[in-house]
């Protein structure tokens, strides 16, 4: 019975943990380009670029060139 309780709790915690990880990765990549996480995300919304945190973190972690081009687009517009 106890294992089921931990599994139930941790399925919910996993969602929070991954969101934290995505934000950390996006923040690190944005700061390398001279932007904070909040400025980066706000600029994306203002430009109408609708990407979720999971996709942005994937770009920041695995395809830095594309992420950097996204940051440059933000800098040019802002």
From TrEMBL:
A GO CC term attached to the entry: ribonucleoprotein complex
Alphabetical list of PROSITE patterns matching this protein: RIBOSOMAL_L20
UniProt entry tagged with the keyword rRNA-binding: yes
Keywords carried by this UniProt record: Ribonucleoprotein, Ribosomal protein, RNA-binding, rRNA-binding
GO BP terms, alphabetized: translation
GO molecular function: rRNA binding; structural constituent of ribosome
CDD domains according to UniProt: Ribosomal_L20
Family: Belongs to the bacterial ribosomal protein bL20 family.
Biological function: Binds directly to 23S ribosomal RNA and is necessary for the in vitro assembly process of the 50S ribosomal subunit. It is not involved in the protein synthesizing functions of that subunit.
Protein name in the entry: 50S ribosomal protein L20
């Amino acid at each position: 019975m106890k294992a089921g309780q931990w599994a139930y709790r941790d399925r919910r915690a996993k969602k929070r943990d991954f969101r934290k990880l995505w934000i950390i990765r996006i923040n690190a990549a944005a700061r390398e380009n001279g932007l904070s996480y909040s400025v980066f995300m706000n600029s994306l919304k203002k430009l109408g670029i609708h990407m979720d945190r999971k996709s942005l973190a994937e770009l920041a972690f695995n395809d830095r060139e594309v992420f950097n081009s996204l940051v440059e687009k933000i800098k040019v517009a802002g």
